[in-house]
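hiii so um. not sure if this is the right channel but i have a protein structure encoded as tokens and i wanna go backwards to a sequence. like what aa goes where. can anyone help
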């Protein structure tokens, strides 16, 4: 009790230093555990979780080739891939025993607007439909999964229903909210479009649903900046693949806009299968095209904020405990190094070195352990929400292993600091308490004079005694 009472009294005499020690310990514990949680989450995201993906693979035109696109030149359609080409890609998978989970497809071509029916949102430099194939784009999907990989952007149906891929709504179509508002169309209304090659060939579709794009920003050239109305993604009409097939407007052997732009999606069961396919099929892909995976692209986009946060935290995970350790050590030394008189008088009064060492160690233990405890608790409960806020919603949970790792590191740092404090009492030299001080110095000459004075005084006293005896 004596040791604890004295330690507490010493802490209360220096409240600011004690509070500063606690705060530094808190920051060290919180910063280190939070940094480790971010590192662990990023490692998991870029290794274990990424390897668990079941990627979809798509062969699409390279950006430099796409930049040459001319929507008013019908011969551009010659760049489209054919069913035969995709069959060659499929052969690569079968010949190399690569398991495919599924194969889906999408197809698109321009279609004409019709008089007194749906009218497209105008482009910035529209041309006649005889050159462009039409003012709208008709695009079909074989499944909802393929629709999610839409190159114009992922969309969400905000009114009505999604497409029916089973054939229960053979004339059902999705139109954008912008297009619906411009034409005052609602779910259940009908509209008419015409073939890209022959304006006399028309078909009537029914608005099954109205969609909006999830991403506010459209790909370059496919938003309000589109030169041709058919390239504005808000002018895209989405239908089921069977509906497109039944129209009979597409012709793969055509040399005009009626040649469909096919896109097959190869879906794999594992990342390993995708990577094997990518390496084997590379030699068969035309130099104007490249293989990519919307699944991996979307996943990397999702984890990009986490990876960026981990990069920023990389230095902090090292710097925070290092700087905090140096500051704590400095505060501990400051607390014990100038207490020579207290130590000396305590030892002279019979207090043992062990008791004084324990007192100094307790003075270190109390604020540091409290700071570590608060910091670890705060990080344990706060790392998840904080990491999610800083990493774009990606979770950065604190696992039990990280907590125990932090506890052991904190305990090790605490023991080192306590030992440093205790050594001050253990190695204190008692004679230093009585070392000469300023103004108290006694020279050798002063000592001789004092000695002579003492001798003279003794002789005088003896004479007085002899006189008294006479």
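sure thing!! here u go:
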């Amino acid at each position: 009790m004596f040791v604890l009472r004295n330690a507490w009294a010493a802490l209360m005499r220096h409240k600011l230093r004690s509070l500063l020690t606690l705060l530094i310990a808190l920051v060290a514990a919180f910063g280190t555990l939070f940094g480790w949680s971010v590192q662990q989450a990023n490692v998991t995201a870029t290794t274990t979780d990424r390897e668990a993906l079941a990627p979809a693979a798509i062969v699409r035109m390279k950006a430099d080739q796409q930049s040459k696109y001319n929507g008013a030149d019908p011969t551009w359609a010659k760049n489209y891939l054919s069913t035969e080409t995709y069959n060659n890609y499929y052969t690569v998978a079968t010949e190399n025993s690569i398991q495919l989970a599924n194969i889906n497809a999408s197809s698109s071509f321009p279609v004409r607007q019709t008089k007194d029916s749906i009218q497209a949102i105008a482009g910035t430099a529209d041309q006649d439909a005889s050159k462009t194939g039409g003012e709208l784009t008709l695009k079909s999907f074989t499944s909802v999964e393929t629709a999610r990989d839409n190159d114009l952007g992922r969309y969400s149906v905000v009114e009505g229903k999604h497409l029916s891929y089973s054939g229960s709504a053979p004339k059902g179509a999705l139109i954008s909210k912008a297009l619906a508002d411009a034409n005052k169309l609602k779910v259940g209304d009908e509209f008419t479009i015409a073939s890209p090659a022959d304006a006399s060939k028309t078909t009537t579709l029914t608005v099954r649903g109205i969609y909006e794009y999830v991403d506010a920003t459209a790909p370059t050239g496919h938003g309000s900046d589109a030169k041709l109305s058919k390239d504005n993604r808000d002018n895209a009409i989405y239908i089921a693949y069977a509906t497109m097939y039944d129209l009979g407007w597409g012709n793969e052997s055509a040399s005009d806009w009626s040649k469909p732009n096919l896109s097959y999606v190869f879906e794999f069961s594992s990342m390993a299968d995708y990577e094997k396919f990518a390496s084997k099929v590379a030699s068969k892909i035309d130099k104007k095209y490249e293989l990519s995976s919307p699944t991996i692209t979307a996943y990397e986009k999702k984890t990009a904020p986490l990876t960026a946060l981990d990069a920023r935290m990389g230095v902090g995970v090292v710097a925070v405990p290092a700087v905090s350790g140096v500051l704590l050590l400095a505060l501990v030394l400051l607390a014990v190094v100038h207490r020579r008189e207290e130590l000396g008088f305590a030892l002279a009064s019979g207090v043992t070195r062990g008791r004084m060492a324990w007192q100094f160690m307790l003075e270190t233990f109390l604020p540091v352990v409290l700071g570590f405890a608060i910091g670890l608790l705060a990080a344990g409960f706060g790392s998840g929400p904080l990491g999610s806020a800083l990493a774009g919603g990606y979770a950065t949970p604190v696992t039990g292993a990280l907590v125990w790792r932090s506890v052991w590191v904190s305990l090790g740092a605490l023991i080192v600091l306590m030992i440093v404090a205790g050594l001050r009492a253990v190695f204190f030299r008692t004679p230093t308490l009585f070392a000469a001080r300023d103004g108290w110095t006694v020279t050798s000459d002063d000592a001789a004079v004092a000695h002579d004075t003492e001798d003279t005084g003794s002789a005088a006293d003896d004479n007085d005694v002899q006189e008294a005896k006479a």
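oh and The two ends are 68 Å apart (CA to CA).
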